[in-house]
Write a structure and sequence with these properties.
Homodimer. InterPro entries: Aminotrans_IV, Aminotrans_IV_CS, Aminotransferase-like, BCAT-like_C, BCAT-like_N, Class-IV_PLP-Dep_Aminotrnsfr, D_amino_transT. One of its GO terms (cellular component) is cytosol. The chain is of the alpha+beta class. The protein has eight helices and 15 strands. It folds into two domains: 2-118, D-amino Acid Aminotransferase, Chain A, domain 1 (2-Layer Sandwich), CATH 3.30.470; 122-280, D-amino Acid Aminotransferase, subunit A, domain 2 (D-amino Acid Aminotransferase, Chain A, domain 2). It has helices at 22-26, 44-57, 66-80, 121-126, 149-160, 203-215, 226-230, 262-280, and strands at residues 2-5, 8-11, 29-37, 40-41, 85-92, 109-116, 128-134, 165-170, 173-177, 181-186, 189-192, 218-221, 234-239, 243-250, 253-254. The protein binds 4'-deoxy-4'-aminopyridoxal-5'-phosphate (PMP).
Length: 281
């Protein structure tokens, strides 16, 4: 098994992380999760563009160029010999004596490794359950930072309730979920929270927007209330691993007819077609 450390690919077991790494001590860093199917990286450029934005937001300089990083990630994926999987990549502000302010000389530390992950076919077919929770995160969740404690706690709450995801409510409105974006479909129109500091602009969200246009489903970037969420005909969640997943119950109440709806299925088909095209190369 191999992993990337800055610009070098090495055996995963040879990578050691310092106790004084700022990612470990402060969560001072950013990350990405990138999907690959049949060893082909999916929306790599969009993930790298978002990584670049996150890095700039926290004044982090990448230890290698974006082109070099893209090459290394492709090499790493090929070396893994995994068909369907993901890359987890993070960059921290590196190692220094513990003090909150940035160290004088920072050497950011980038690490990445692959993991096999099958497509979540049964969840995609039957849908998942969710709960709603208060969005108590900070006001810059558009930055894909390592600080995920509120997300961790929300997801755990969902799990304990027998659900898969926790939908965040801020000032009465749905923002996103603990690890995914949220969409509601009403009378054939798809609604979702606009891109803002209150959501992470998901790569799968961006892909879904293109697909909605392609299949002729009207898209509205507009936040909706928790009440409106409960009255949607269909609800969808997206992320890099979950893909385009139907939500069939929220807080124990069925969404629409309590099964994946027609628009959701249409969007899932379009997404599956995009994967098929990637696999054909
Ligand atoms: N929102 C949050 C809070 C997330 O953690 C994620 C997944 N990283 C997403 C949205 C979806 O992003 P993407 O489609 O890029 O995986």
């Amino acid at each position: 098994e191999y992993a990337l450390r800055n610009d070098k690919i090495m055996p995963k077991a040879d990578i050691t992380i310092s106790l004084e790494d700022r990612g470990y001590q402060f969560g001072d860093g950013i990350y990405e999760v990138i999907r690959f199917y049949d060893g082909e990286l999916f929306h790599l450029d969009a993930h790298l563009a978002r990584l670049d934005i996150s890095a700039r937001q926290i004044n982090l300089t990448l230890p290698l160029s974006m082109d070099a990083l893209a090459r290394r990630l492709k090499e790493l994926t090929a070396l893994s010999k995994i068909g369907d999987g993901k890359i987890y990549l993070q960059i921290t502000r590196g190692v220094s004596r513990r003090a909150h302010a940035f160290p004088e000389e920072t050497e950011p530390l980038l690490t990445a490794y692959t993991e096999e992950v099958a497509r979540p076919l049964s969840q995609l077919a039957t849908g998942i359950g969710a709960i709603t929770v208060q969005d108590n995160r900070w006001l810059r969740v558009d930055i894909k930072s390592l600080n995920l404690l509120p997300n961790v706690l929300a997801k755990q709450k969902a799990k304990e309730a027998g659900a898969v995801e926790a939908i965040f409510i801020r000032d009465g409105h749905v923002t996103e979920a603990s690890a995914s974006n949220v969409f509601g479909i009403r009378n054939g129109v798809i609604y979702t929270h606009p891109v803002s500091p209150f959501i992470l602009n998901g790569i799968t969200r961006q892909a879904l927007k293109v697909l909605a246009e392609k299949v002729g489903i009207q898209w509205v970037d507009e936040a909706f209330t928790e009440q409106e969420l409960m009255e949607m005909d269909e609800v969808i969640m997206t992320n890099t691993v979950l893909e385009v997943c139907p939500v069939i119950s929220i807080n124990g109440q069925p969404v629409g007819k309590g099964q994946p709806g027609q628009h959701t299925i249409r969007l899932q088909q379009a997404f599956a077609e995009e994967i098929a095209v990637l696999k054909r190369g």
